Amino acid sequence: MRTPALPALLPGATLGMLGGGQLGRMFTLAARVMGYRVVVLDPDPDSPAGQLADIHLKGDYTAAATLLHMGQLCDAISTEWENVPSLTLEILAKHCRVHPSPAAVAVAQDRLLEKTRARECGLTTAPFANIEDQSDLVSAWAQIGGPALLKTRRLGYDGKGQVLIGNLDDLVSAYAQLGNVPCLLEGFLPLAQEVSVVLARGASGEIAFYPLAENRHLRGILDLSAVPARVPAALVTEACNLAANLAHGLDYVGVLAVEFFVLKDGQLVFNEMAPRPHNSGHYTLDACVTDQFQQQVRALAGLPLGDTRLVSPCVMVNLLGDIWQPEPHWDRLLKHPGVQLHLYGKREARPGRKMGHYTVLADNLNTALAIAEQTRADLGIS
Ligand code: AMP
Fold it and tell me: Does residue 69 sit in the same domain as residue 195?
């Protein structure tokens, strides 16, 4: 299925962003550099993207009057968070272009829909059982067994809303602990690596892939991405083909991130997708010809997609609020000439809060990794 392409929205047009966090901020920067006007909707008066937008609407995502105003101001609208109510996107779509579509975002909001759709598109997932309510616990345990992960179907991110399960008693108490909400029980897999594909798909179905990123998580939160991922070329091709199947299957328009597990036997298993630029694609800001936010602007505006070529091996390191006591020693980081620092303009640092990131560019990935590890230690990242 193909969406007929609309005429491109050229610089000077107004682009809207639902959500004013760091992803919205980097979109806003890219759009303004390219000459677009940007409207951000976020209730926080000091949101990272609102600080930089032409117009910051400080309303609620469900307020009809605010949505009408935004729809009238904008020529096209996208979102920086997948949990935006799909009704919000549907209302806005009556006024202007909305990419990705409300239907595609709805799939990404619910782990059951997401994994079911991924399987329909030919991707392999971990074995899972749906738990609608308490009456499903015993049969889910019988189907999946342990070790397993109990994950809330909605609103889980950065490892939140998931618990490791060893036996049925664990499952019963963890389900109550997660609030008796719909969940998936997922088989715990022997992971060798985690990788992600970030791609952009235009309205006529063309796809541009970024180089595969190899990701390391700490306490469920992305810690570091290394690019190009240290995997066989055939695995890169397979990951891109599978991600493309999903993007085509959803008739997706915009930037899409697809996260995979690489198992010890080399098998690629779909984990989840994000209907937006992704933390594991932040390296593109410094290491690719066109970064993922410029690409988001291009896809939203209906422009040709940009060149995704990697111009240097790169490591991206996340900066969480844990190291703000009160402010990290940036001089220890910036003494390295190949380091680029990105801070998101968040006033309050909290443990686990993403405050910024930095990239290390070097002639080869091993050197970049060595500098990344040394600078992490220098900044006190444990
Ligand atoms: P998620 O929120 O689903 O992305 O999970 C957060 C992290 O938990 C992943 O990046 C993995 O490191 C780990 N994880 C999630 N699901 C599984 C699984 N089925 N088996 C093993 N590890 C997992």
Answer: no
